[in-house]
Queue: 3 jobs
Job 1
Amino acid sequence: MNTYYGLALDSKGNAKLVSNLSGSRAVAEKELKDLCKKAGLVYGSLRPTGNKKSGGSTLTKYAKARKVKNGKAGRILD
């Protein structure tokens, strides 16, 4: 489960940040739209908070995701 943050615009065009929207993307988007409606803001966009992995080289940190993307994960080798 990811966490998301959203951007909303007020009547003057200033951006407001809404953070800690959790759940799936659809749930977070609905939550943001409901908050915007209650506060009188206009829905802007929804973004994931980003990847928090630290340490190690890029090739090491994302090796599992790369293998899944390339179809190498879970394959039995003789």
Job 2
Amino acid sequence: MTSKGRINEFKQWLTYRTNYTFFALGYKTMQESKQAPKSQRIYQEIKKYSPYSLERRIGGFQILMEGSDVKEKPPIKEVYNRLDQLDKIWGKKYISINGDFVIIKDKD
């Protein structure tokens, strides 16, 4: 095999390896940023009352709190985990379960 053949073979191998590495890193990052699974039936009903919402911006997302000017701008990788964290804090304070009923308390 000539040296040109070896160089072309190495370039091809390097291209495939680089593509694979970027794919693997992207997949790993996506898996880390996924939210924990929730009961969709209950979560959709409770989410209506949550004071937090996502707003798109040029650099990703920001978390807004209803009735406040406070905006959080977490890194794109952590935005859903942070929103989940804020919802849990809000839920501990304003949601209670009484038998088969979920009671959402008003903040006033």
Job 3
Amino acid sequence: MKLTFLFVISLLIFVGCSSNEHCEKEKPSDNKQPATIVENSSKVTASVISITKTGGNEYSIRIKVDDSNDYNNMPSIAEKGALYNVVPAFAIDESGQLTDSERNKRLLEGLKLEENNKIEAVIMLDNDFNWYIYDLIKVWNE
């Protein structure tokens, strides 16, 4: 009788847990926060300190951030007053050629930048720890 009772109880537990996700064993907690993906972009107003044209469509700009704002509802990571070396983040196709996008056209305008120009741009820190201009929104002299 006891053996039958234990068998029935074991069967109920097995059947109940195999169809109920709440019966899954919890993983041991190591008190670490879950990993989150944070967008590393900032919308900045900056002064052009210098520009280096490296050939073709490539260039590098040293900027000083005058103002930094949140972008896409994420906090800004660029610091006001900080200096950054940024290069354009062109959109390219499968063959490695620049696409004919409006963003690429704006980034190509960066080749015309001069020292002391002001820019409004979206800059981002990529996984390779380099800073990129994702979009060049506006250029002016002050």
